[in-house]
Design a protein that fits this description.
Strand content: 35-45%
Mean pLDDT: 90
Shape: globular
Low-confidence stretches: none
Bound molecules: zinc ion
Largest sheet: 7 strands, mixed
Distance between the termini: 57 Å
Length: 154
Amino acid sequence: MEIHKTVGLLVVEKGKILLIERLNEPSIGMLALPGGHVDGGETVKEAAVREAHEEVNGVEVVGNPVHVFNHDVGENESNCPEKHKHECYVFACKVSGNIVTGSDAGKFIWLDPRDFQKYGPKITDSSQEIIRWYLDQLGKLSCMSDTISSLPGE
Ligand SMILES: [Zn+2]
């Protein structure tokens, strides 16, 4: 099965995650993290920077991918008629200016993780997977800081 490389941009500010409304197929009207396919000849980092410009001005890609995962793409989930797989590279981004969504994105929201269940059905599967991974990392970090703060002092 064919594998396409894609990028997903995780923009977090004040504990909230940026989601944009998709104005084009696939997944029109759904909420998703900014991102898209890596074009031929582009590195994943270059694709992340380009998508950041195209979809949401005002964010800056930071460093190397923080996570990579594979997911299946069904026949109706993409412009590509064939079923295929995506190898998605997740990049962390910071807000560097006013968020202005690009031409293929509608409104944007800041998702409070506590509302994740409520918004779940409106969020694309691959973005849900990235958000779940992110929240899982946060959970591990807070467990770690609990452990550290409970260690006996000197
Ligand atoms: Zn694809």
